[in-house]
Write a structure and sequence with these properties.
By secondary structure, the chain is an alpha/beta fold. It is built from eleven helices and eight strands.
Length: 240
């Protein structure tokens, strides 16, 4: 049986708008267009590679917003740990690290309690066929791998996990409210793109998700602010 998360997350912070745009100036224009419809933003690799990512981070945090650094760190544990150490003090709430027990341990050790480490359990673009391409047995289901990794992430000390909405309910059953569940792959309407394990905002929250990360359905909408407000209305309806 599905149920809402009872973790104490401010209602407006449950929507994270992904600034998946080519440059910082594009991101600034999108933030201006969204106005007070959004107060939590995701900065990812596209913006990092464009330059100006950390200046934008400082601007967003300085304006009272929260920021999620979706950098998906993946390297030897020492390098991951040093990278996380360098991110401390910048005001970000979360940073993502690809699943790897030693990497996650190093990240959590260096996060210093001020930066929440999110374990990327499995990219939402990967389905059973994708797992097979990665060398996993044909019998391995994405959900089984995600849940096992979420349990281990809790033991390691992660603040939460990134997982598809399809696995959220099983994760809640296994770890209760001890981990934040942050979910990409949100599609208010059916879409043909590179995401495979997807759900609507309502479905995701009813499966126990804490935050949904929404990119293209907002920034590619004719009216991004209206798209964000529609999602916030769904959140208000569910969480009161």
């Amino acid at each position: 049986m599905s149920s809402l998360s009872s973790r104490p997350v401010p209602r407006r912070e449950r929507l994270i708008a992904a600034l998946d745009v080519p440059a910082a100036e594009d991101a600034r224009r999108l933030v201006a267009a969204l106005g007070d419809a959004v107060c939590f933003y995701k900065l990812g690799l596209e913006l990092l590679a464009s330059g100006g990512c950390f200046a934008l981070l400082a601007e967003l945090v300085g304006a009272g917003n929260k920021v999620f650094l979706d950098l998906k760190l993946h390297d030897i544990p020492e390098t991951v740990g040093r990278a996380v150490r360098n991110l401390r003090g910048r005001g970000a709430s979360f940073v993502t690290v690809h699943y790897g027990e030693c990497q996650l341990e190093a990240a959590c050790r260096e996060a210093g309690g001020e930066l929440g480490v999110l374990a990327v359990t499995l990219l939402t673009s990967i389905d059973r066929a994708g797992l097979r391409d990665l060398g996993y047995p044909d019998a391995m289901a994405p959900g089984d791998l995600v849940v096992a990794r979420a349990r281990r992430a809790l033991e390691i000390g992660c603040a939460g996990v990134v997982a598809s909405p399809l696995e959220a309910h099983r994760i809640r059953q296994q770890v209760g409210e001890k981990l934040a569940i942050v979910t990409p792959g949100i599609r208010p309407q059916p879409a043909a793109d590179d995401q495979r394990r997807i759900a609507t905002p309502r479905e995701a929250f009813l499966n126990g998700v804490d935050h949904i990360v929404v990119g293209r359905p907002i920034h590619a909408a004719p009216d991004p602010r209206a798209a964000a407000l529609a999602i916030q209305a769904t959140i208000a309806e569910l969480f009161g």
